[in-house]
Amino acid sequence: MDIATFTQILEIAFKKKVSDIHFEVDNPPIFRAYGHLIRSKLNTLTKSDTEFIASTVMEQSRRKLPENLTEFDTSYALPDVGRFRISIFRQRGNIGIVMRVIPHYIGTFEELNLPAVLGSIVKAPNGLILVCGPTGNGKSTTLASMIRFINDNFSYSIITIEDPIEFIFPSTQSCIIQRELGIDTESFGGALKAAMRMDPDVIMVGELRDIETIDACIKAAETGHLVLSTLHTNNAASTINRIVGYYPPQAQENVRHRLSEILVATVSLRLVRGKSGDQLLPALEVMYTTSTIKACIRDGHLDEIEQHIEKGRDEYQMQTLDQHLIQLCKQNIITLDEAKRLSRASDLERKLMYY
User: Fold this and answer.
1) In degrees rounded to 5, what are phi and psi of residue 178?
2) Which string of b and e fits 327-343 if b means at least 16 CB within 10 Å?
3) Which domains does the chain have, with CATH numbers?
4) Beta strands at 157-162 and 202-205: parallel, antiparallel or unpaired
5) How confident is the model over 38-92, as pLDDT tens digits?
6) Each residue of 233-262: pLDDT tens digit?
7) Using CA atoms, how far apart are residues 69 and 65, in angstroms rounded to an integer?
8) Which of 57, 117, 161, 293 is the least crowded, having the fewest Cβ atoms under 10 Å away?
9) Distance (Å, rounded) from C-alpha 10 to C-alpha 99?
């Protein structure tokens, strides 16, 4: 492996609209496209190949590949092509790399097939907005589109804290400061404390990973800032449950009260295959924190939230995942089998008849 070959592989990934590239010893480079893994016809990678790739990636961040590396996250930029979010890890004693493709261009809600209600959500003057879903289902892309909307429409001071920095935001209407863990700051918690002294209107935190980060985000939202972040959860109820669960039992009632006051909305994503098979589309649950849902959070009645989301579709533009899946089916965008694959309901076909 040399730099020319490595660069060519990355260029192919962008050209073919690949979402991820896997580099592992004893396998050729493997691409993920439209949800499918595709083994390339390139040469099988050796130990020196993957070590070369890892070293090349880390050198761009002015780091060296340590001999005792176990796992490490970073980013890599290819001039005039795009950026990559990178996970470097050790498996069976060898170095492996997975690179997530991040295009230069940040799509609008319409271009990404996201609902226009997200624009209303990010107009909130303060509070906490959470984008949720499993790994690889579009959380970062959706969050970037929300920041783009704010940047295009408001003159705000926006601070992002990421590990690593993914999308690069130009300052258009807003002024944007982007900080990366390990390069610009040591921790999410420390960066959030510093951000409070940096005149922020909006703070974007790449991921809520620990109680320190969660508590700092809640405090920032309580003090009049708009905070956006992500969580690896499946829906609104599990998101709230996860946050509350980080706290000791004696503090959980207080956290529910705090969350009920500052949570603006949760947006939960899953990617579904279009009928053509060569397109992935977002299917979303959107929860806006109405007074009724605030009461559910405060009183711990999380199992009631989904029914309130379902009833609030017309008035608040909320939707459950099933409602969106049914809509996509009725529009002939996805198959019923694909909707069933993601739905938790056993009676999706019956629901489809009545919507």
Assistant:
1) -115, 125
2) bbbeeebbbeebbeebb
3) 3-103 (3.30.450.90), 117-354 (3.40.50.300)
4) parallel
5) 999 999 999 999 999 999 999 988 888 888 889 988 899 988 788 999 999 999 9
6) 999 999 999 999 999 999 999 999 999 999
7) 7
8) 117
9) 9
